[in-house]
């Protein structure tokens, strides 16, 4: 019981943090004290004070404002990448599950190939072909994250296909498309939602990593990864440049993971009792 | 009564003498080198690391002094015929190689023949192309006959790749790549790849009283953080390049001395003059008025001297034209309005392996935004920059630094006839070409000044300027000398106190 309560508390806190993050990201122009790209060259490397609550960076830009605006690419990449992954992976998984053995094997071969590459390496490769930038990062991440959803959806589809009520439905003449929408999709939604939250977390980290390496968001735009990249050279003189984006990144990923964990437990309580 | 010294006393005194002897001999300078030279054969590479190390093993016929002026070295004097085709060098008579062989004109001929040999495939071979023949009328005279007048040859002979090698060892096929043998102030000791290169004093060096150090050890330390730590703690005595970001920490250290010198770099934002609307002079002028060059130098490059034309500001051939385009954002706005650039999007391409250029690009992007230009930054890796921007000409603006050369022709050759900025001006191109054929400093200076004035007025670049270079040494290191245009170190007068 105590475990469940603390799990609830963690879920609530994580959900609250994410809600705040989304709000800040959307309302950034209204909430942020300064523009994220305005340079104040006479106020470089200022420690947190009244005028700049989180300090300033090497160009005198306000770190709080950059942190707030930086939530946008982080969340945008997450949303778009997950959407692409769910759409692409879902369709592939459904086709593989519903289709013939040959289709199944062919599609899964492709998915497994993508899965076998290290994520960041694959992301860098895709981005090198398509050019550096936000859109390219989102598409790259979407493609890279799709095999996980493909496998998930395929497994569920295969399991449901052999259920008794499906056979009965088929005998009554229900076409495959209606089958999919009426039976398969509702059953896999919970699993997809859980996986989405985990993929979201991964997307945020990969975006930050790519920007850190210089192949993602281009300067002077605000991105947590870019902020970390700049901060690296000034760890001794201006540690706040690294601390705040680092904490933001860590909290965001942690929150997504906790939400995912809690949702997973809620939808599949049997799994967790066995732990 | 006889006074008999105690045994302990004698041993103590002996130990003290031994210690003194060791201390005097162990005047070793430890130098932090940023990478591994690919070879130590000066004729087989264009890599700066090689020449930084080889400077201590070898000498050249002439050499640059601290101001960049070319002065005698192994040649005590030289004369050039009025038509610029016959160069006569009179060699020093008191020089020996480190293996004992006496230095004569034979060695100069053998060295030059070797580097001009096609089979050697030296990357610097083309710099000697003007030499038609080499004669040695006696043991201490060398006469070069050129096929056409070519003034930059003197700078070539002062550079690290013109290091004089012993003719006997050339003939015997000695492996200069692994074991340098020259007339220089230090003798090669050993090279442990990826670790260190050590050298010991040449007691018979031809500049009497030098070198002062007994030993020099080049430690190979590629990571910046490790270099800085080493200098702070004293495990290395000198560092040739201190990143401006590390300055505050090192300057706060009482045991470290930072020397600030003007480098020979030319930092620019290049503009693609073939592209609309950058082909319009007024737009390029507007961009120049919009940039506060001193601020860019101070914040991105660690300080420096503002430039006004396409040459390093410390160069003896430089002239100042900074009154032409001072920082004036209002004038920039006016010109942009006149030319109707509007909201057209421009891109600054930056090679992202140079964080200083990335910083400069961010600063300039903001400055241009302030006068109403819509500018984006595009990072790319080095090979993409080379193929897409430098050779491909696919850019609006780009931020880059040009390394200084010992001879202005090395920097200016080809400009006015295209190059990566696609800037064409027949007058400037002609003056630059002519200046390469003239040997007299005054005459060359006049020609280069004319060409530089045209480049200053027509602004195919924003001439940000020449940055300072910070050399870090321990405070007990004295007289550490650097030749900026060659990026090499002269340890002959350096001493540890």
Short structural summary:
The complex is a heterodimer of chains A (275) and B (497). Helices cover 76% and strands 0% of the residues of chain A. Chain A is mainly alpha-helical.
Layout of strands and helices, then pairs:
The complex is a heterodimer of chains A (275) and B (497).
Chain A: H1 2-31, H2 63-98, H3 101-116, H4 119-130, H5 134-161, H6 164-171, H7 176-213, H8 224-231, H9 240-267, H10 269-273
Helix pairs in contact in A: 1-2, 1-9, 2-3, 2-5, 2-7, 3-5, 4-5, 5-7, 7-8, 7-9, 8-9
Chain B: H1 7-25, E1 28-33, H2 48-54, E2 62-64, E3 70-72, E4 75-80, E5 86-91, H3 105-116, E6 131-138, E7 141-146, H4 153-158, H5 167-171, E8 186-192, E9 196-201, E10 215-220, H6 224-233, E11 238-239, H7 247-251, E12 256-262, E13 266-271, H8 281-290, H9 293-300, E14 304-306, H10 329-339, E15 345-351, H11 355-370, E16 374-380, H12 382-391, E17 397-402, H13 408-412, E18 417-418, E19 423-424, H14 426-435, H15 441-458, E20 461-474, E21 477-478, E22 481-483, E23 488-490, E24 495-496
Parallel strand pairs in B: 1-10, 1-11, 15-16, 15-17
Antiparallel strand pairs in B: 2-3, 4-5, 5-7, 6-7, 8-9, 9-10, 11-20, 12-20, 13-17, 13-20, 14-20, 18-19, 21-24, 22-23
């Amino acid at each position: 019981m105590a475990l469940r309560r603390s799990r609830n508390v963690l879920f609530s806190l994580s959900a609250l943090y994410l809600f705040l993050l989304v709000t800040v990201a959307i309302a950034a122009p209204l909430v942020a004290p300064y523009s994220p790209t305005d340079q104040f060259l006479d106020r470089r490397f200022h420690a947190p004070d009244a005028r700049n609550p989180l300090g300033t960076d090497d160009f005198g830009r306000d770190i709080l404002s950059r942190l707030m605006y930086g939530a946008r690419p982080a969340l945008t990449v997450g949303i778009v990448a997950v959407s692409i992954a769910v759409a692409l992976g879902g369709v592939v998984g459904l086709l593989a599950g519903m289709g013939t053995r040959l289709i199944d094997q062919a599609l899964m071969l492709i998915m497994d190939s993508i899965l076998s590459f290290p994520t960041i390496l694959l992301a860098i490769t895709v981005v090198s072909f398509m050019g550096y930038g936000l859109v390219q990062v989102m598409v790259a991440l979407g493609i890279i994250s799709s095999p996980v959803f493909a496998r998930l959806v395929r497994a569920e589809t295969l399991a449901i296909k052999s259920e008794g009520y499906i056979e009965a439905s088929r005998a009554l003449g229900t076409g495959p498309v209606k089958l999919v929408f009426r039976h398969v999709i509702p059953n896999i939604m919970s699993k997809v939602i859980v996986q989405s939250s985990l993929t979201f977390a991964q997307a945020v980290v990969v975006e930050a990593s790519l920007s850190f390496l210089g192949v993602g968001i281009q300067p002077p735009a605000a991105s947590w990864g870019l902020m970390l990249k700049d901060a690296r050279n000034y760890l001794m003189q201006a540690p706040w440049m690294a601390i705040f984006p680092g904490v933001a990144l860590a909290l965001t990923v942690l929150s997504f993971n906790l939400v995912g964990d809690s949702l997973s437990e809620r939808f599949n309580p049997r799994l967790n009792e066995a732990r | 009564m006889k006074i008999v010294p105690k045994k302990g006393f004698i041993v103590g005194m002996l130990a003290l003498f031994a210690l003194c002897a060791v201390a005097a001999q162990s005047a070793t300078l430890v130098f932090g080198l940023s990478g591994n030279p690919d070879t130590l054969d000066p004729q087989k590479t264009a890599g700066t690391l090689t020449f930084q190390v080889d400077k201590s093993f070898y000498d050249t016929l002439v050499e640059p002094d601290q101001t960049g002026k070319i002065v005698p070295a192994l040649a005590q004097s030289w004369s050039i015929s009025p038509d610029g085709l016959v160069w006569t060098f009179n060699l020093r008579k008191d020089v020996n190689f480190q293996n004992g062989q006496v230095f004569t004109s034979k060695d100069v001929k053998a060295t030059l023949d070797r580097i001009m040999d096609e089979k050697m495939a030296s990357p610097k071979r083309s710099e000697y192309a003007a030499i038609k023949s080499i004669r040695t009328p006696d043991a201490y005279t060398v006469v070069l006959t050129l096929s056409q007048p070519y003034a930059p040859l003197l700078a070539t002979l002062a550079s690290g790749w013109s290091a004089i090698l012993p003719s006997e060892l050339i003939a015997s096929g000695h492996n200069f790549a692994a074991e340098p043998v020259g007339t220089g102030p230090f003798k090669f000791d050993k090279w442990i790849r990826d670790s260190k290169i050590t050298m010991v004093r040449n007691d018979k060096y031809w500049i009497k009283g030098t070198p002062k150090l007994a030993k020099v050890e080049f430690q190979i330390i590629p990571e910046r953080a490790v270099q800085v730590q080493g200098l702070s703690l004293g495990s290395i005595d000198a560092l040739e390049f201190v990143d401006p970001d590390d300055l505050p920490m090192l300057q706060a250290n009482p045991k470290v001395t930072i020397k600030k010198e003007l480098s020979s770099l030319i930092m620019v934002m290049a503009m693609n003059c073939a592209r609309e609307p950058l082909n319009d002079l007024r737009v390029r002028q507007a961009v120049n008025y919009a940039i506060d060059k001193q601020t860019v130098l101070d914040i991105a490059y660690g300080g420096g001297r503002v430039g006004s034309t396409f040459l390093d500001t410390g160069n003896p051939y430089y002239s100042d034209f900074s009154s032409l385009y001072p920082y004036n954002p209002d004038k920039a706005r006016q010109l942009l309005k006149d030319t109707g650039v509007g909201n057209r999007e421009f891109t600054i391409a930056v090679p992202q392996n140079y964080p200083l250029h990335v910083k400069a690009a961010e600063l300039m992007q903001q400055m241009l935004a302030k006068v109403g230009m819509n500018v984006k930054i595009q990072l790319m890796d080095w090979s993409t920059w080379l193929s897409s921007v430098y050779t491909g000409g696919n850019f609006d603006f780009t931020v880059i630094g040009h390394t200084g050369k010992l001879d202005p022709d090395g920097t200016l050759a080809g400009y006015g006839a295209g190059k990566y900025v696609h800037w064409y001006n027949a007058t400037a191109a002609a003056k630059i070409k002519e200046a390469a054929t003239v040997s007299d400093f005054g005459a060359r200076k006049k020609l280069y000044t004319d060409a530089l004035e045209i480049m200053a007025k027509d602004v195919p670049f924003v001439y940000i300027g020449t940055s300072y270079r910070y050399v870090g040494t321990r405070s007990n290191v004295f007289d550490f000398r650097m030749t900026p245009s060659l990026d090499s170190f002269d340890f002959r007068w350096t001493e540890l106190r």
